[in-house]
């Protein structure tokens, strides 16, 4: 029991705070359901028969390459729309209203997907459902970052990615169990899970406190203080809620911007915005769309392992890797984990590409390709996947957090769209037909991600959002963030109009 009390996570989480972070993370399960559920369903015989075309030469059903490309790329139209809409709702009406709204939307889009009988309906359903995913990305990581104490912020925000991966495990387990069914129930049963999480979130969201930082931006200091009291368990050596509120107030007063889009590229904010954009580029450009959207189909084409078993195995490995990363990030730091992940990705991706140059690979060589594919995905889940959301929400000034999230996520969406759309053409004949040699492309970009992490990403572990803001405004060199000391001077402020 004493050991638990000394745990760096346990001593910073109150029951109310844990419930809030848990509910916010739960909503991300639906992202994992969609991301993995659709990808795995595309490998099912009944799904191909319902939405594919018959090939007389192979005497089998298959979804054409152009439809595979469209299903896994045009959904980002909905993602972009949902991101912008969710960010506006979140900034104007609060994080809780945004989460309630997106949950209702998710149940509507799930109905379209499950009732589909034509591939055009599936495409429409994916676009609609990804609007929910965009709203979620605009709301959940900032919400978590704003309510959590600095010493465990990395773990809390990282649960966004961990929950996504747990959702992948759950739906891949269901898909494995239904994959042998010959009817459309094979893919409709797992997609029925799309209703579960939004129903829970919509019902429970009003029982958790609103973000105190958002309340201050709405000139509601009394409500912000109430929220802090509900979220924090203050011991004898911890600051009082009034003291933390005063720090938040003073930081807002001294921010060197008015919260406009132009401010994103002015002064110290320019560095923050460019770093956030770079993080969101590399998370997608190093192979995430390849493994997430096409991993099951790719492994199925190798004829070496049951693709549904591979999906479940890969989901479990990815989740374990992510949990390790978010557990140690507040102790080890952001930069070492990012750089380690990049190095591992370089190894596995070039291994996959190198073995792929063999014209007639043996079974052992094919299994090396499968293993390298899984390990590449695990390396990404250990590093860039969870750390992207942590770093992107830590960087911005309070008035610019929502706008920075929008701009950075647009880069994420654009990069994801490009690679999701082109990957089937890179993989398959009669197009580029690179197959596993795509590892050379993604591995080369992973080399660039290593350079970016080393030179451009500051170390922000253990820093409050207000300390990070001060260091950027004072022009501290990015490489010195981890060792610089900063003193926050604050005064109690009771009335101030924070709305720009």
UniProtKB/TrEMBL annotation:
Domain of life: Eukaryota
Keyword entries, A-Z: Membrane, Transmembrane, Transmembrane helix
Major facilitator superfamily (MFS) profile domain ranges (all copies): 20-461
Chief localization: membrane
Membrane topology, from the record: Multi-pass membrane protein
The keyword Transmembrane is annotated on this UniProt entry: yes
Keyword Coiled coil applies: no
Family listed: Belongs to the major facilitator superfamily. Sugar transporter (TC 2.A.1.1) family.
Name under which the protein is recorded: General substrate transporter
Organism per entry: Aspergillus lucknowensis
Organism lineage string: Eukaryota, Fungi, Dikarya, Ascomycota, Pezizomycotina
């Amino acid at each position: 029991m004493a050991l638990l009390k000394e745990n760096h996570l346990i001593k910073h989480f109150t029951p109310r705070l844990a419930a809030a972070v848990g509910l916010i993370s739960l909503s991300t399960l639906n992202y994992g359901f969609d991301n993995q559920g659709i990808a795995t369903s595309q490998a099912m015989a009944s799904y191909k028969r319902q939405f594919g075309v018959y090939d007389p030469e192979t005497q089998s059903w298959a979804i054409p390459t152009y439809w595979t490309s469209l299903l896994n790329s045009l959904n980002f139209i909905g993602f972009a729309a949902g991101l912008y809409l969710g960010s506006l709702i979140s900034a104007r009406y609060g994080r809780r209203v945004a989460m309630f709204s997106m949950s209702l939307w998710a149940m509507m889009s799930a109905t379209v997907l499950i009732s589909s009988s034509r591939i055009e309906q599936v495409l429409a359903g994916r676009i609609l459902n990804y609007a929910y995913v965009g709203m979620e990305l605009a709301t959940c990581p900032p919400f978590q970052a704003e309510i959590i104490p600095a010493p465990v912020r990395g773990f809390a925000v990282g649960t966004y990615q961990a929950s996504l991966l747990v959702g992948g495990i759950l739906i891949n387990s269901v898909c494995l169990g239904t994959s042998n069914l010959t009817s459309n129930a094979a893919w409709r049963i797992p997609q029925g899970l799309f209703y579960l999480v939004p129903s829970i979130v919509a019902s429970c969201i009003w029982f958790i406190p609103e973000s105190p930082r958002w309340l201050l931006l709405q000139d509601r200091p009394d409500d912000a203080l109430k929220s802090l009291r509900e979220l924090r368990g203050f011991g004898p050596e911890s600051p009082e809620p009034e003291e933390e509120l005063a720090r938040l107030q003073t930081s807002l007063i001294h921010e060197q911007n008015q919260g406009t889009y132009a401010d994103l590229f002015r002064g110290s904010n320019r560095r923050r915005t460019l770093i956030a954009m770079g993080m969101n580029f590399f998370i997608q450009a190093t192979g995430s769309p390849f493994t997430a959207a096409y991993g099951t189909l790719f492994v199925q084409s190798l004829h070496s392992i049951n693709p549904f078993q591979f999906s479940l195995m890969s989901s479990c490995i990815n989740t374990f890797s992510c949990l390790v990363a978010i557990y140690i990030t507040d102790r080890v730091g952001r930069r070492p984990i990012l750089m380690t992940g990049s190095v591992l990705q370089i190894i596995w991706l070039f291994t996959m590409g190198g073995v792929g140059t063999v014209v007639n690979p043996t079974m052992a060589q094919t299994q090396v390709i499968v293993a390298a594919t899984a390990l590449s995905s695990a390396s990404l889940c250990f590093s860039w996947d969870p750390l992207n959301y942590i770093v992107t929400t830590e960087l911005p000034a309070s008035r610019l957090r929502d706008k920075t999230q929008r701009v950075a996520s647009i880069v994420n969406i654009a990069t994801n769209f490009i690679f999701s759309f082109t990957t089937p053409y890179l993989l398959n004949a009669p197009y580029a037909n690179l197959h596993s040699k795509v590892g050379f492309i993604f591995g080369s970009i992973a080399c660039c991600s290593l350079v970016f992490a080393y030179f451009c990403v500051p170390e922000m572990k253990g820093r409050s959002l207000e300390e990070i803001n001060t260091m950027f405004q004072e022009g501290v060199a990015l490489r010195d963030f981890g060792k610089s000391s900063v003193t926050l001077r604050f005064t109690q402020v009771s009335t101030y109009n924070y709305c720009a």
